[in-house]
Fold:
Amino acid sequence: MKSEQIDIEYEKKQLVLARFNTLNPESKILLGGSKEMSVKQLIQHIEKGDDFGKHVVQIQIKMLQLFSEGVKT
Structure:
């Protein structure tokens, strides 16, 4: 993996962590319509860099990209 690609992945992770750190760590988030998890637990997965944490980062970045595109009429 190239250095700049690693830097981009690191920056994405930091952005998602910054977003989640604005929330109450005990707040619950519903995932996939069935599994509930606290913000604190999500942050732990992201910080560890496990598969679930990486998936959360990917989903959050995709969501931000969609928000930045806005609604097309």
About this structure: The mean pLDDT is 89. The radius of gyration is 13 Å. The first strand starts at residue 28 and ends at 31. Helices lie at 3-20, 39-48, 51-69.
